[in-house]
Design goal:
mainly beta
């Protein structure tokens, strides 16, 4: 059973706000590793990546963000033996809305940001946070429970993305929207 992102932030009660603990995790995959850290400070936060095993550039990278990091993982979406890095962030507020920062390792040469296509406004109808993010069968999936009048309907909406090369960067192209 997957927990809402807010539950991943702390084990305190979901009614009272809680402080996120600093995030520090090292991920390894296919001769590449990266240490992902974040102070998880409210308001002005950042994500720092310290890669190892890249052929060209292993420089540290720091990205400013507002929300705390709750999870990081590697997945080889395009089957080239060069993993993509995903960092999941969550708003610790009532809705615990989520977002993902992603990078390609470009054949294990360097880190390049991946642009994730935003869904159409109509496809976000009933959105009230509690996102789940995963890579399944070479597809990046974002799923959330659908709400109506402040209560869950028992249904879910799911966005499925495929990794595509762009002109200057990689892109997650939205290829399917499902409601169930």
């Amino acid at each position: 059973m997957k927990l809402p992102l807010l539950a991943a932030l702390c084990t305190a009660t979901l009614v009272l706000p809680c402080a996120a603990k600093p995030f520090d995790q090292t991920l390894d995959g296919g001769g590449f590793s990266v240490r992902v850290t974040s102070p998880n400070k409210a308001g002005e936060n950042s994500v720092t990546l310290a890669p190892r095993g890249l052929k060209n550039v292993n420089d540290r990278l720091s990205v400013p963000t507002q929300n705390p990091v709750v999870r990081a993982f590697l997945a080889d979406m395009d089957g080239d033996n060069s993993p993509e890095l995903f960092v999941v962030l969550a708003n610790p507020g009532k809705e615990s809305s989520g977002e993902v920062l992603a990078w390609s390792t470009n054949g294990k040469k360097s880190l390049t940001p991946i642009v994730i296509e935003e869904p159409a406004k109509k496809d976000l109808a009933g959105y009230a946070g509690h996102d789940e993010f995963e890579v399944m069968e070479n597809t990046f999936v974002r799923r959330f429970p659908v709400y109506k009048n402040g209560a869950t309907t028992g249904g879910y909406r799911q966005f499925q993305y495929k990794l595509k090369p762009g002109e200057a960067t990689w892109k997650m192209k939205l290829v399917r929207v499902e409601s169930f």
